[in-house]
Amino acid sequence: MVKGIVHYEVGNQVDIFLLVKSASKGIASNGKPFLTLILQDQSGEIEAKLWDATPEDETSYAAQNIVKILGDVNSYRGKNQLKIRTIRPATDLDGVQLSDFLTVAPIKKDVMADKINQYIFDMKNSNIQRITRHLLKKHQHSFFEYPAATKNHHEFISGLAYHVVSMLDLAKSLATLYPSLDTDLLYSGIILHDLGKVTELSGPVSTSYTIEGNLLGHISIMVNEIGQAAKELGIEGEEITVLQHIVLSHHGKAEWGSPKPPMIKEAEILHYIDNLDAKMNMLDRALERVKPGEFSDRVFALDNRSFYKPTFQN
Amino acid sequence: MVKGIVHYEVGNQVDIFLLVKSASKGIASNGKPFLTLILQDQSGEIEAKLWDATPEDETSYAAQNIVKILGDVNSYRGKNQLKIRTIRPATDLDGVQLSDFLTVAPIKKDVMADKINQYIFDMKNSNIQRITRHLLKKHQHSFFEYPAATKNHHEFISGLAYHVVSMLDLAKSLATLYPSLDTDLLYSGIILHDLGKVTELSGPVSTSYTIEGNLLGHISIMVNEIGQAAKELGIEGEEITVLQHIVLSHHGKAEWGSPKPPMIKEAEILHYIDNLDAKMNMLDRALERVKPGEFSDRVFALDNRSFYKPTFQN
Amino acid sequence: MVKGIVHYEVGNQVDIFLLVKSASKGIASNGKPFLTLILQDQSGEIEAKLWDATPEDETSYAAQNIVKILGDVNSYRGKNQLKIRTIRPATDLDGVQLSDFLTVAPIKKDVMADKINQYIFDMKNSNIQRITRHLLKKHQHSFFEYPAATKNHHEFISGLAYHVVSMLDLAKSLATLYPSLDTDLLYSGIILHDLGKVTELSGPVSTSYTIEGNLLGHISIMVNEIGQAAKELGIEGEEITVLQHIVLSHHGKAEWGSPKPPMIKEAEILHYIDNLDAKMNMLDRALERVKPGEFSDRVFALDNRSFYKPTFQN
Amino acid sequence: MVKGIVHYEVGNQVDIFLLVKSASKGIASNGKPFLTLILQDQSGEIEAKLWDATPEDETSYAAQNIVKILGDVNSYRGKNQLKIRTIRPATDLDGVQLSDFLTVAPIKKDVMADKINQYIFDMKNSNIQRITRHLLKKHQHSFFEYPAATKNHHEFISGLAYHVVSMLDLAKSLATLYPSLDTDLLYSGIILHDLGKVTELSGPVSTSYTIEGNLLGHISIMVNEIGQAAKELGIEGEEITVLQHIVLSHHGKAEWGSPKPPMIKEAEILHYIDNLDAKMNMLDRALERVKPGEFSDRVFALDNRSFYKPTFQN
Amino acid sequence: MVKGIVHYEVGNQVDIFLLVKSASKGIASNGKPFLTLILQDQSGEIEAKLWDATPEDETSYAAQNIVKILGDVNSYRGKNQLKIRTIRPATDLDGVQLSDFLTVAPIKKDVMADKINQYIFDMKNSNIQRITRHLLKKHQHSFFEYPAATKNHHEFISGLAYHVVSMLDLAKSLATLYPSLDTDLLYSGIILHDLGKVTELSGPVSTSYTIEGNLLGHISIMVNEIGQAAKELGIEGEEITVLQHIVLSHHGKAEWGSPKPPMIKEAEILHYIDNLDAKMNMLDRALERVKPGEFSDRVFALDNRSFYKPTFQN
Amino acid sequence: MVKGIVHYEVGNQVDIFLLVKSASKGIASNGKPFLTLILQDQSGEIEAKLWDATPEDETSYAAQNIVKILGDVNSYRGKNQLKIRTIRPATDLDGVQLSDFLTVAPIKKDVMADKINQYIFDMKNSNIQRITRHLLKKHQHSFFEYPAATKNHHEFISGLAYHVVSMLDLAKSLATLYPSLDTDLLYSGIILHDLGKVTELSGPVSTSYTIEGNLLGHISIMVNEIGQAAKELGIEGEEITVLQHIVLSHHGKAEWGSPKPPMIKEAEILHYIDNLDAKMNMLDRALERVKPGEFSDRVFALDNRSFYKPTFQN
């Protein structure tokens, strides 16, 4: 198998296919245009400059194109950069496709869908069950494609569903240890808590924020949808308000984006489960390239801390 | 005219009608029950103890009853307290009624309704106009009865409508000075911004928070209602999202309860207008009993500051 | 079975045995001494005044004595107070003992000891295993008697061991879901993290802080003990520093008392497990006296929030 | 009319006059000196590098000189940069002058002076009136030349006077809606509140802080001047202290530079008016280059927010 | 010598002279007026209730009167209270006077004046010397009478001068160890830094804030006076601005009341010296009644900490 | 004497010996390797690029080598950079040595050792004296070599001992002015407070943090060592806990790294002395290159402030 682009070291020569994640045009000091390309594969990304870019180059190497590059890995301001010797667009003959270059959740969509449906099937409160099933069905396609965030954690294809599945399994373990938990509320809250992201974010690839995402945020979007789903399904009862509250409060504090803090036990616990799964995901990724006896890079979303891998671990 | 209860001084004897705002039972050190009464008139409130209370007293002096009291104003821990000599329930013959004891906005409901309708009538964007009119009509009755808050500012009958009318007039002045403001958005935002309070709060008298108010808050409640109104009226277009955003962001910052900060000019300005009118209301009330050369009591919602009335003002 | 003291309502007469938690002397306005007694049973505590207290009363009703009281439940400043009609010290004939009045963990000490020993037995790294076993053995007696805190959570007999057992079970569940966790480190960290409390706190009953507890705190105390244990056992290796770090960092942030934030994955996760178990304990207790459709009292250690029990839960 | 320099796009060729705002010398990797020029016109500014700079170039292209440049707009690190092909100093024959390149308030100085004098003329309290007139007269020349700040808002020629005039008009509107306001205090406070900036700042062009400005700040400077003006005019009375307080407190909070928070109603309201006018100015400028459906750049002084221009606005 | 009032314990009988610090009237539950007296001697203060107070009592026992009391020390809500058996106003025959009941600095005024004059005499920069001497002379009488604060530290007669003398001595020691310090600036800054308190505070006894003190604060008051002194003395030069800056910045941070932080070395060091002397004064007082092995009361101005006196100290 | 590297200006040619502080390899845009060298002498440091670096260059110019360079001082992004014309490793014939390039404390090690020993000799409490002497002796060699920090203050050879000596002298002055201070505790606390840095830091040159330093910090390291020293010396008594507390609390607040705030008078004062000496050191260095009438660079550890040197100082 081919080595990922982030695993090359300064001085190495590379000869690989990469996906253009973004391309922006500049004009060099010699007056000629050049392109700054961000190139990616499943291992991560690297920057490259394409000097003396022609108008055709701008088209051929626009975002979402796959390219074949021969070049060298340099160091520029402490970060690796790819110096291009030759570049060409990939062709059908190359046998490469978009999905070869994208990171994907480690569990298949079908398997995840089955697991989640089982959790819904097991719910006893039919109001909660119907609303959950209705909203999941409505956004089913996007839900199993979208990442859970644009960066920090679960920012890969199907990351949203994968995060939800991990949280459900964690919730189930907790409910065994602390049997006072209402699993209907907890499972439904987990399935719905980030579902508004399918409206807040632009899509699974080159993900950005939509206008509605910027102005309202995934929390308010989903709180609204729960209200409308209840209306469409003709459901009345406190379950609606409580589910809306759980989604509304799942960031835990006003300054983290929840206008109301958790005031229901399951809302408070969901906030913890969300955090724990996200942090575990970040920690695993921060440490996966670190050797025993070394510190990781600083992780911004973990208060900018470095983590140490003890020498007696391997 | 009768002097208000808060204007009596320690040592004064009083012989007046008062409304029971709340009553709670205790047992005294002699083993007999007593009632702690909070009594109010339009000037404010005072506490009183009714010793050796009979079961009939508990009924006669429950909240919302009007009573006639002969007593003395004492001081207890720095606050005035009413020492009851004789007390009796008011009767029809006394010719007193609930509204005599409640503070009411200084403008009549009809006049306020006319003013607000004129602002709606003047709107040019029909999407904004229709949603605003629809939601105001839906909650019309409560809107003109409710206070704007349970304490701090505009906490009187019709306080909500009065606050909105003051803000609309202020917005109109501003729009003259800064003509780039979109008055449709601004007026609609002002009318809707606190409308969720008719669901968040229990009613115009002895106001408390409803369950829905506690769990969701007036901001999320109204954001949802705008979405549903649009659906019912068959309105589509960015106006919906923008109005939702204005309501969502009107507290200005996440830590003050707005999950998104203002990102539209009119949203930012509405936040200022809201603040300015509320603060002006608080300042006027804090200073109304202060003589030139004196400091007011501390005002909790104004960072617990005291305000000074200069000697050259009168 | 006898009803707990906190379950009586204002106006009820009581005739029960209670433990004197604390007693302090005052002088009444008639010039005579009186005692303020805090009385407790397994359900909680109540205050009582013993007027005209004789010197014998001071001895008979000092802290840690059991008394028989006939009296009435009054309300004073919003809290229940016990008005004493008759009081007498309990005698051997009454057949009551100290442990009848103390709250105890829901699992027996033997069972907890077996569970913890099994976790230690399963450790694979012998350095970690030996230090953990050595320190637990050293403080064994106190560890199974002490509460986990003086208030907020697990503040009952054997609360410390019970908290540790719950955390171990939670850690085991997590390690199944996230197999990258080093269970030796995690289990050892959990067993040791609060062990310094047996030095920081005065004992299982009427718990207060020792001088050493005040000046150094349980975290520094245990970090020191790990170092000394290693010296005594002749153990060298990074495990010592890493275990010290896990204990040192388990409060998560400098402002919460950890001079170093977690920099090892297991340290970070231990902090989460600690929090989750403590919060779950607080939530369960806050909600146990609440009926569906009601809010709990405010819980200081949960940001002073109230929690709502939905009407559809029972 | 010539297009402003900030309106050119990457790849455009320019052939225009610009004012050198600042020039600093460096030595290139070929060992030869070069100049980094910040060039401006009324639309804004752009950076340019002049390579192989001679000693004559250093003189010709020093700050405050006007130059004629033929060049190309490049992109460097996400910001536009001007690549110079040819450059020459402007001559008298070119018919360009300093004021052509500077942004100026939209109202003429004479008109502003008349307005402000009218506000002073209308004051009824002669102590307040005399002090205000005295201090304005003393700093008249600078007051109508200086900007209100070095950046963020009203940072253009006559920006200070323009900000004051806008605030006065806003205060007048408010006083109509809230008649309890003391307009003498409010108008005087507005005229004086930032007058210390004529001492704090170096002048209307290439504005920086003076030593006195750095060490004392415009607030303390003006508080002192009010005291001295009163002494010179032989005025005694509480008006002096109150005006000093209004200036002292106009930043609203200690952490924003006011050692005392507002404790007079007009001081509190002045703080709001100041804020509202400054924010409106920032918002208008942030949005003036934004098309409907787009977000503005982030505005640092508005908590680094972007603002959205709705698609239905134009 | 007579034992101070704070050294009596609950149950003790007292028969002593005390100064009435404040007296306020209330009405008891029997409808009769009573007085709440705060009584003090040099050791501290105690509260007492005078029941059934006559109008003559109100006059005889007003603030600043000396009284003879026979009574008992009770405990009320954890604080000592004096139960009055008999009370009478002191007469000339009693031979007691106001100063017997007030705490006074441990050094005589004359001695302090000589020390400070010597520090001024030794200054080499005549501008600094003249301004310092002028301002000290202007406020000489009050300066040697006033306390340094109304509470927390040096809140006794001549406390201001005593604090200044201690700071000067400390500054002299520092200047020996760190010879780069400019002693003229440092000594002058110390003498002037709190001199505005003679205007901010009402006087040496029953000290409160003046209107000017409330609205401007001692810092701004003294910054103004330095400016006026320079004008009167015809002094020009940067010394004026620098001395104003030192006074302005001596609280160290904006949130502590200094609109500018120290930007001169001596200003920074003065802030430290001020702090160190104030904290030392608070620590000594907090610990003076504590026995070895005990913790002091919490000290509000020291972050509400308790301090421990080690058992090996005596 | 040769001019220090930081005193050269842009455009100057240099021909001097420098120590390589660090060297890191990159690959240039021409595909060839280059070295980024940080070069230092006693005056400070400068960056240089060595283009087309051979493998031999990597060895010859690794950290800790001394080099002879002919080059020019350029400016790059506002900082000086050294453009290398010729470079060669120093040889024995050059007569230069490591210590020529390192900053050293202004007092000799012997003199400092004598002073500290005298302070220990003068202690009266033998427990405190023995522990202090034991720990100083144990780390004697490193203690007199290490810096007090990696940056900010006293970051030079023997900086740690120099900081301790200055603090001791300052403590002695204070103890004269405030005789209630326990000098045994204070002197011992000062000698031990930062002694853990000899374990936390890697060494006197190219200082970085050790693993143990990162995971535990110098405070916890020394608290542990005090406990072990007591055990080894067979000392029991509260002195141990108190000394541990003084070291533990010397950063003053939890958020600054002290899990317990000072709760002993001498602990509080030590925190002030530490701060005062560190700040004085930073201030002197910030101002030493500043001319009268100028502001210094911003000092990060002094809240990023600039300091002004008055024109009347020289």
From TrEMBL, chains A, B, C, D, E, F:
The entry's keywords: Exonuclease, Hydrolase, Nuclease
Chain's gene name: yhaM
Gene Ontology molecular-function annotations: 3'-5'-RNA exonuclease activity
InterPro entries: 3'-5'_exoribonuclease_YhaM, HD/PDEase_dom, HD_domain, NA-bd_OB-fold, YhaM_exoribonuc/phosphodiest
Domain of life: Bacteria
Residue ranges annotated for the HD domain, each copy included: 163-279
Full protein name: 3'-5' exoribonuclease YhaM
Gene Ontology biological process: rRNA 3'-end processing
PANTHER family: 3'-5' EXORIBONUCLEASE YHAM (PTHR37294:SF1)
Keyword Nuclease carried by entry: yes
Broad EC category: hydrolase
Function noted in UniProt: Shows a 3'-5' exoribonuclease activity.
UniProt xrefs under HAMAP family: 3_5_Exoribonuc_YhaM
E.C. designation(s): 3.1.-.-
Stored Gene3D superfamilies: Hypothetical protein af1432 (1.10.3210.10), Nucleic acid-binding proteins (2.40.50.140)
Organism for this UniProt entry: Fredinandcohnia quinoae
Signal peptide as annotated in the record: none
Sequence similarity: Belongs to the YhaM family.
